[in-house]
Amino acid sequence: MEQDKFDILNDIEYPDDLRRLSVEQLPQVCDELRYDILKELSVNPGHLASSLGTVELTVALHYVFNTPEDRLVWDVGHQAYGHKILTGRKERFCTNRKLHGIMPFPSPKESEYDSFVCGHTSNSISAALGMAVAAKKTGNKDRHVVAIIGDGSMSGGLAFEGLNNVSTTPNDMLIILNDNNMSIDRSVGGMKQYLLKLNTNETYNRLRFKASRWLYRNGYLNDNRRKGIIRLSNAVKSAISQQQNIFEGMNIRYFGPFDGHNVTELVRLLRQLKDMKGPKLLHLHTIKGHGYEPAEKSATLWHAPGKFDVDTGKRLVTESDNKPPKYQDVFGETLLELAKANPKIVGVTPAMPTGCSMNIMMNEMPDRTFDVGIAEGHAVTFSAGMAKDGLLPFCNIYSAFSQRAYDNIIHDVAILNLPVVICLDRAGLVGEDGATHHGAFDMAALRPIPNLTISSPMDEHELRRLMFTAQLPGKGAFVIRYPRGCGVKTDWRCPLEEIETGRGRKLKDGKDIAVLSIGPCGNDVGCAIAEIEKENPGMSVAHYDMRFLKPLDEDILRETGEHFGRIVTVEDGTRNGGLGTAVTEWMNDNGYSPRITRMGLPDRFVEHGTVEELRHLTGIDKDGIKRVFAEALCSAGNGKDIQ
Fold this sequence. Notes:
Elements: H1 15-19, H2 26-43, H3 49-52, H4 55-64, E1 71-74, H5 81-89, H6 124-137, E2 145-150, H7 157-166, E3 174-179, H8 190-197, H9 202-217, H10 223-241, E4 253-259, H11 263-274, E5 280-285, H12 293-297, H13 327-341, E6 345-349, H14 359-364, E7 369-371, H15 376-388, E8 392-398, H16 406-414, E9 421-425, H17 442-446, E10 453-455, H18 460-470, E11 478-481, E12 505-508, E13 513-517, H19 521-535, E14 541-545, E15 548-550, H20 554-563, E16 566-574, H21 579-589, E17 595-601, H22 611-617, H23 622-635
Helix pairs in contact: 2-4, 4-11, 6-7, 13-18, 15-16, 19-23
């Protein structure tokens, strides 16, 4: 199906155009929309399977509700590509996730149809409830608010907090549970099992709905009576079915489960529920990757498959024997190696075993690895509980998602200094996923916390050695942060040796300026130093790999404070509060006064693009580092003609 054969989609720019169609035309709209997503993502990679699974739901929602006046609050924005195409971004969708193109996840900064930011999971119910209450308080009683939660998001603790508040706060919101039994990997936990078993009779729901509307119209039913009837109804239904409905147990009307891929049936259901008073939940069964056989068969692989051939389903993966491995794979292989030698080691991940490569250990030691679902805070506290009673957990969380576990790291790990190894994958700039996913804040956020050791390896060898060090006795709470993507060494397997905690290393002597780097950006620092010294004979720059943000290597700081008038710090986290700030504080506290230039991410949210583009944009690539070196050398009076 080529673009010139999009008989209906070509004429749809906004939902108003969609609403002029007949219901009978909607299945064709869904077919064309699904193919458009496939066609675009085959050449411009993104999140495929999730959006294919919500095509019918997206069309039905915009057909029934008066968007953008009515609010659709998406949970996990990778479900929303169809939503973008139908809301004025069809022609620009080819720029999705590209530098200066449309955003990777819905955002009100981009479109009035995007009611809230939804790069992270489980926030839709809370945000939608706030909007529903605001509509009542501001007199906008005709506004409808819909939360669309799914892709495993119901396992997140914030979703349950929102549900609890929905049940006690006056509102008329609709919650749609897109139940596809998936997040990225297969969903896990009791909620998954509950949803698989839950079955409420459709005929019963339809009759009850009609009866309640008749009672309202004739004045026999008000809100207080309605709640009493719901409680009685729930009790009777639970006794008959020998099954308690958790949602109706919270006084949230439940409807379903229904087929989420029958667009005409969805339109009928949404029209029935649209003006119903009180909170209600529509439970839909969907298939991640629906309508595209390769994605249906392997939803995890096709969550974000990269480029592919639409007709054959062949992924266009470039393989190279000489390419260094991904940091996550070095982590996964090393964790298994350590676990074989240390029976106390266990692995914990919040729904990302494939994304962080803990599946390597999971496949060989399933009884020592735990996927706890989308629940970062629980992952940390669960790890702390195991550590308290003798185990040694490696808890792997994406850096940006660890923000949701901040209190757990402080309260449940750091206070007791428990031996939990918190591995922060995707630290630094992550690329096309943009502002919601960059691991920009972990160092600045964690640095003030007592008892934490915070480290960042410069390469794969350092990652392996830090992992080995962290599991040795007496190391306490230990953080290791490392980036997304490939490393720099093909010979990444090295002997596992201890690194002294808080000890950095001098990589190169120099006399003009000293550069203190932390993490993989040290590799670019090395290249920049080599080039600027080659271009400026007689100049020399000293380079230190700090390794640890906490504790700092005070011997290095004392040496650089005594011998250098200019110091440059380089890091791939936010410049405010990270390594540069720590070095500046130490120099001030200890009576040294070098001029310090801090390089890092700026005090703003960085947009989306390739990692290379964003590092150039933020000035922390090799060329940006060279410019700062040249300025530092000039201001130090060491060469006015520096190239």
